[in-house]
Write a structure and sequence with these properties.
The structure is a single chain. The protein is of the alpha+beta class and 121 residues long. It has a single domain (4-112), classed as Aspartate Aminotransferase, domain 1 (Alpha-Beta Complex). The protein has four helices and six strands. Strand 3 and strand 4 (48-52) form a beta hairpin. The protein starts with a helix and ends in a 5-residue tail after the last helix.
């Protein structure tokens, strides 16, 4: 499972991404002011990691051990998954899902904002 440092290092590489610590100490990554990944809220050594996903991924992932619909975000109709325990996802799979989340959020940004941020959708 990914540590907070590994998570932050990975998210740093996304173009036009910003990092803020908010919501009770969670490490929140955004693009264009919109959240694409969150890590925090764990009482253990490793953070819970939350990401946006497609409807198909959501239906599959929510049934896997160590994963669940993200509290609050999924309850509001969004397709967000939270890895909260073992076995969860491998680091490579987690990185792939965070990348997909980033791409989905970028696609939802306005053309004008994508142009200002020098992003392609």
């Amino acid at each position: 499972m990914m540590s907070t440092d590994q998570y932050n290092k990975f998210c740093t590489d996304f173009a036009a991404s910003t990092h803020v610590v908010q919501w009770g100490g969670a490490h929140v990554w955004k693009v264009g002011g919109k959240v694409f990944a969150i890590a925090g809220w764990s009482k253990g050594e490793l953070p819970f990691v939350t990401f946006k996903c497609s409807l198909i991924a959501y239906e599959v992932l929510r049934e896997l051990p160590g994963l669940r619909p993200a509290p609050y975000l999924a309850a509001r109709g969004g397709k967000w998954i939270q890895m909260h325990g073992e076995p969860g996802l491998s680091d490579a799979d987690m990185e792939a899902h965070i990348t997909d989340s980033y791409r989905m959020v970028v696609k939802k940004l306005t053309r004008k904002l994508r142009a200002e941020l020098n992003l392609e959708a």
